[in-house]
Amino acid sequence: MPKGTTGFKLKVPDNATKALTSSPKRMTALLQGYGDALVKSRAAGQPVSFRVDVDPEGEMVVTLVEEVVGSAVPVAQEAGAAGAELNDALAAARARGRLKAAEILGGDDMLSADGFAELLGTTRVTVNTKRRSGQVLGLDGAKRGFRFPVWQLDADGKPYAELAALHERLGGPWAVYRFLVQPHGELNGLTGRQALERGKTTAVLEAAESAGRDFR
Quick one: which H or E segment has residue 41? Predict the structure, then answer.
């Protein structure tokens, strides 16, 4: 910190704050990337940049991209090495994401389309029609097929009426899933699912609208 400075504050949306503070490594990686770029820029006397790639599970890869003239390493060679390193890091991040998704989809609270249809007293075709329209939450498990969280049903055993609006605001099934299982400052620390269970439907939709804007 500069002399005489004891700290500083950053104002960011609540959902972004929770996403960063839930994993100190993420904040460390961002600050480290910025710090490295700043040091190299000052030393070279010209701009440099750094890139942040984030996968759906929040894992990130920070890569410094130098724009310094006169490097002893040919630019094409340097770019190729950096590209290969980035590709390897992204491949590893995607693999971690797939493992996490498989773990989620293999949980006891996940039903197949047939199992979910039986629970609702309807057919597999109807379930898949409702999934495509966003009226029920179905997560694509590739080899496992679609899986449906059993907790998306209300006290009457029907899918929450707000699911279609959540899909519209958040843009996709996995985004809806994360919204429902993660706590939100706008909901006083409740997850989206907990808020729905307590009948806080208006607050849930407002929080989803806010989250959707942040990621657009």
Answer: helix 24-44
